[in-house]
Amino acid sequence: GAGTALVASLVARKPILNACMNMGGPLKKIAEAPAGPFYIHFWAPNFKWALSINNLLDYDRPTDKISLSMTSALTLTGTIFMRWS
Q1: Maximum Cα interatomic distance, the chain, rounded to a whole number of Å
Q2: How far apart are CA 28 and CA 32, in angstroms?
Q3: What percent of the chain shows pLDDT beyond 90?
Q4: 16 CB contacts (<8 Å, ≥6 apart)?
Q5: 29-66: per-residue pLDDT in tens?
Q6: CA atoms in the 13 A half-sphere facing the CB of 73
Q7: What is the pLDDT of residue 85?
Q8: Over the stretch 57-68, which tens digit does the pLDDT of each residue have?
Q9: Cα–Cα distance for residue pair 17/70, rounded to 1 Å
Q10: How far is CA 14 from CA 20, 26, 39, 60, in A?
Q11: Distances from the Cα of 12 to the Cα of 24, 46, 71, angstroms
Q12: 60, 81, 77, 61: which is closest to 69 by C-alpha?
């Protein structure tokens, strides 16, 4: 499940990063970036945007079908992390 995928990605992170560093070219520049795809600072904002886009897709949804927990989590994390944006 999701736990297995998470563990597999954590185990494979270093070998994949090292392979990208050895290739050179634009792939190496992306892998070396301080906020590149191998660091949480790259993925967290992307998932935050995905949640925001999902909320926009709920625009025409009946109000009784909208997830209160997801909307609350999005509002809370947006409020907490707007300091660093």
Answers
A1: 52
A2: 6
A3: 0
A4: 38
A5: 888 887 777 777 777 777 778 877 877 887 888 888 87
A6: 11
A7: 63
A8: 878 888 888 788
A9: 33
A10: 10, 18, 11, 43
A11: 19, 21, 33
A12: 77
Structural tokens at position 50: 């995905």
Amino acid at site 51:
L
Amino acid, single-letter form, for residue 1: G
Q: Could you tell me which of 17, 22, 19 has the C-alpha nearest to residue 36? A: 17
The residue with tokens 């992390």 is 81
What tokens does 77 get? 């994390």
Structure tokens at 70: 């997801």
